[in-house]
Specification:
With 161 residues, the chain is of the alpha+beta class. It has four helices and six strands.
């Protein structure tokens, strides 16, 4: 689905039965199309999941004054959440029906300050490896001109639902 297509977003939790019936890629693609609700954190921070293929997920957002820390820059947790989301969902796209995943650990490096003036940003997660129990991914957070703002890696636990 094109990121330019406007979708009416719903927010909430997907039932355990519905989640268990879907493979990871199908689950994330349904988040992209709006067939499933995004989590409420997406509403709180204003991010969207706009693209999902096997092993790759893109999340977009626009930093705003609502995301500022006391020093007047966008809180690092905003970038961390976007990277955790794109990397974790990228790993999820590689696993089959009846399985899920969760972040075991992640590391990020913040390279440039985010400001409301930064404008739209994009977080892209790409799987490095995905096995029976562990998946790893890397993520890049860039601005509209392609400048690298932050990057990271994650390790996710894959488990039977």
């Amino acid at each position: 689905m094109s990121p330019n297509v406007s979708i009416e977003r719903r927010y909430g939790v997907v039932s355990a039965d519905e989640r268990r019936a879907l493979g990871g890629l199908e689950f994330v693609q349904r988040l992209v199309t709006g067939a499933l609700p995004l989590n409420t954190m997406a509403r709180t921070l204003g991010y969207d999941i706009v693209e999902a293929t096997a092993g790759r997920v893109i999340v977009t957002a626009a930093p705003s004054a609502d995301h500022l820390n006391p020093a007047g820059t966008v809180h690092g947790g905003f970038a961390a959440t976007l990277l955790d989301t794109c990397m974790g969902l990228a790993v999820l796209t590689t696993i089959g029906t009846g399985f899920s995943s969760t972040t075991l650990e992640f590391k990020i490096s913040l390279l440039r300050s985010l400001m409301p003036e930064t404008g739209p940003i994009r977080a892209e997660g790409i799987v490095i490896t995905s096995g029976k129990r562990i998946g790893t991914a890397e993520g890049r957070l860039t601005d509209s001109e392609g400048r690298l703002l932050a990057h990271g890696t994650t390790t996710c636990l894959i488990f039977d639902r």
